[in-house]
Design goal:
The complex is a heterodimer. Helix content of chain A is 74%, strand content 8%. Chain A has helices at residues 9-34, 47-69, 71-74, 83-124, 128-149, 158-162; strands at 2-3, 6-8, 38-39, 42-43, 79-82. A three-stranded antiparallel sheet of chain A has the order 1-2-5. The relative contact order of chain B is 0.18. Chain B is built from 21 helices and two strands. Helices cover 74% and strands 1% of the residues of chain B. In chain B, strands 1-2 form a two-stranded antiparallel ribbon. Classes of the chains: A mainly alpha, B mainly alpha. The interface between A and B is large, with 64 and 61 residues.
Amino acid sequence: MKSGTHLQMRWMELLVAACFLGVSLLVITDSLRVGNAWGPDGPEPGYFPFYIGCLLFGGAAWVILQTLLAWKHDGGEEVFAEKHEFNLMMLMLIPSAAFTAAIYVVGIYVASLVFIAAFMVWQGKYSYFKSFAVGAVISAVLFALFEIWFMLPLPKGLIETWLGY
Amino acid sequence: MDELNNLFQGFAVALTLPNIGFMLIGIFLGVLIGVLPGLGGANGVAILLPLTFGMSPTSAIIMLSCIYWGALFGGAITSILFNIPGEPWSVATTFDGYPLAQKGKAAQALTAAFTSSFVGAFVAVLMVTFLAPLVAKFALNFGPPEFFAVQLLTFASFIGMSKEPPVKTLMAMMLGFALAAVGLDSVTGTLRMTYGQESLLKGFDFLIAVIGLFGIGEILLTMEEGLAFKGQKGRISLKDVLETWKELPKYWATSLRACLIGCWMGVTPGGATPASFMSYGTAKRISKHPENFGKGAIEGVIAPETAAHAAGTSALLPMLTLGIPGSPTAAVLLGGLLIWGLQPGPLLFTEQKDFVWGLIASMYLGNIVGLIVVLTTVPWWAAILRIPFSIIAPVIVVICAVGAYTVHNSMLDVVLMLVFGLMGYAFKKLKYPLAPLVLALVLGDMAETSFRQSMLISKGSLEIFVSTPLAGSITALALIMLLWPVFGLLKKLSRG
């Protein structure tokens, strides 16, 4: 789906419409399972979702049909994203995903500190000290706000346990 | 004039020193919550609710409702300056508010938004004061068919007004409905679309979707454009305020319509979000220059802001008189009333006069205080703009993650938030509108329940939606809105 220097709009259009199609099939299958008909005591649980699923299927099919009909005419000129733009987006998405994964392991406070500091050094070219300081301040403020002030515990890791929280 | 007497007593309650203090704290916290994309009115109030248990119910409700007003004001700041709606009800404000800011008219847009918010809220408070008993009695006659007709109207007007392709609007909306249906079916208790996953039992929360779609999605889009955070400058001088105020009376008709839509949607459980969209759509339909909408029309800021505040304020009317919350935040406040040992309902007006009229008086005062606070402190809130993107991006992601986690204390929600973020990125590029998705996710359960109840009453006949004059006229209006794109197409065709 990548051609030369950019992602083509028509391929992304098809990909997303195919996802919609998949979701609509999931919705319709499950509605049929729980019953989409008229039960003895009124509409069954699948009654409403069934029609939702059908509309979703119809819409997705329509978009796919339109994209395919315009395929030749379009010729892949329309740009979804330039390759370097897409890479920049991934530079945000992948660290965010890594941050989320890190919360499971070390808790949200340490993960936030490392995430903010690393991103600042890597993308903003800030000094290690400055980056660490900003990360530490944000984490400390979050800690004070949620653990102490709001008493709303967030995910924590070993270091917080060791400190007695 | 019994109401006036009661109101003056209310002012006496609200104007004590501690209560004014709580009012100020509430407004400041509210604006902060409204500005931060990860925290919202409903969960902001929910987080702070436990802190108020030790306070007197009157002081507590004054502070919490002021957080609500503050959040309503604050949502407009990020919408206009950052193009990030801080709240779902300020999504419609981004359509014209952000283009205005891009043109260097941020001060005008902000002043118009704040002033309209104030006007909307003021009209709604007047209505609450004088029409509470009457309107509540009227809404009491609403049955499921009328409720569904109102919801249908909201969704239909979406398709009618959308600047995106109607098919994609429909698809986004249906996806929202489908996501809303996941989990325990509230009517029969059946599990739907969980596919054996226990974590899906509680379904998808619209707050997670909002944080992901708008917060993370926007960050990804901004990153793609090369680390430039497209925030606009926001400093309001007295001159800007006075000049904008001079302009505003020209749009009295837009304001009035927006107030009416807002009050209506607030009293019936539509809430601020659909009200702002309906109002925006109506203003665009009626405007002599609909082509200016989306490019920075001042009416496009006035209409949704006025309606959102009118709806947000009048949502307290059915909550107080009937115990039916008109918005998610009103629902959280209702939970507060029960915890403080107050039974919402008509008796509240006779047995807890101080509480009810203290709250109503605080609505007048809170909105005046709010208007002054936001007009004078905008540069402070907008100072976030001067922070480089390589700092603000990870911080926003962290705040979003914390916000997503605290909704249900679930890590799965944080993961879902990222998925919604990626979805928001792709949807924006492919011109799938996000707002109908979120709205369908919020109102999905309500719409389905009223639809199924209507079907139960009518034994499956759709005629029930036209059986009474009230339901019939709302349904007819909805169908007109739904078919609006077709009318436009026919017109084009007939012209050749």
